[in-house]
Write the structure tokens for this entry.
Amino acid sequence: MESRFTDIEIRLTHQEAAIEALTQASLEQQQKIEHVLGQLQDIRILLQQMAPSETGSLEDEPPPHY
């Protein structure tokens, strides 16, 4: 009977360690996702700054063959 309790305690210890490792991995992934989302937002801002303005859009100009 005591052997079964020992086995259960060992399993529980391993499961707790696995859960802690998964939690840590999840937190690290969330931090990376937030970092990538920040970079994506920076890229969007840069692209908006590089785009032609609404008043001077290239779409308003006739094509070169006219």
